[in-house]
Amino acid sequence: MKTEELIKITEQIKPACRETMEMAKARQESLAKPPGSLGGLEDISVRIAGMTGKVINSVDRSCVAVFCADNGVCAEGVASAPQSVTMAQTVNFTRRLTGVGALAESFGSELLIVDMGIKDRIPESLYDDIPLRDTHKIVNRRIRPETGETDNIAEGPAMTVEEALRAMKTGIEMADAISAAGYEIMGIGEMGIGNTSTSAALLSSITGRPADETVGRGGGVNDAGFARKKEIVDKASRPWREAGGIKTAEEMTEALAQMGGFDICAMTGAYLGAAKNRMPVVIDGYISVVAALAAYVICPDAGDYMIASHKSFERGYVMAVEMLGLKPFMALDMRLGEGSGCPVAFKIIKGACDVMANMATFEEAAIDDGYLEEIRSEDRFRK
């Protein structure tokens, strides 16, 4: 894929339908309850209506796309776990033995597992090249078939711009596959030791903020690794910070190539693909929200289709989600990644949509809502 092709794809992304959102708000006002009494659930249902163009929505079928890749920056001692964990957990996704796997099983969601560039080789028997034909297999989309991982961002660019674009195209492909398979909502997850380093470098580059504000301990790196992590992020992001941050799609693509990962590039593409398909897409934690922010920089209208699930414990998350203008609706101190917040969020979003669809209006409940006129006029619960 070339930059021009990416731009053409983003031109297919349309903003959420404001007219449908107004109709959804009107229906919420007609439901038999005090105005605004379901709080964030009402907001979610209105936003979903804008995404799909329908007031009444179903989100019964859900899928988390999990993009897996290794990062060359691990050679710098910035991670608490060995890179072999990336391969082991990717295999465990197929068995639903990981955090997101167990939660997906519990909440009735599916997983789409994608190998974007794992250093250790996955057994060939676990691959299936066709997305979602067998959700207990892994889709092979390795950008570097032989070596797997990206280059070390402490020494130079992580990848070429062509590789970054190819990874983004894969993310778009997976979103298209999820939509075509009839899923109504998707989430974005990842597996890649070292990817909090690449995420922090990108976040500092986008925002212009120093490493001290974007770098956390990830999986629990020791003090020496934490210090080295901040040094690397500071050096990698400095040119962009000195330029005042990343402002264009072309700059964002270049920055993804310089200091991203194959996983983050694919996740960025998946957010764009979800928006292209007018599909609600749930953000998980820190890596997921940085990829969402990258997609937003490339195409601001893509932000209309994003829903923030939980407030990640990782430093920098709040900065990224606020730039997106989103508010997470769960506070569980989660910091696992994988997309683990998505299956939980799907059920809350389903509840929001089911209230819109199934709750009685005042007329249907045979209730005279005249007593609410004063409350509505003063908007007492919104001030």
Q: How would you describe this protein?
A:
With 383 residues, the protein is of the alpha/beta class. It has 15 helices and six strands. The chain has helices at 3-10, 18-30, 40-52, 84-94, 99-107, 161-180, 195-207, 211-214, 223-242, 249-259, 262-276, 286-298, 317-323, 341-358, 373-378; strands at residues 62-69, 110-117, 138-140, 185-191, 281-283, 306-308. It has a six-stranded parallel sheet, sandwiched between helices. Helix 12 (286-298) links the parallel strand 5 (281-283) and strand 6. Helix 7 (195-207) runs parallel beside helix 9. The termini are far apart. The model has no long low-confidence stretch (mean pLDDT 95).
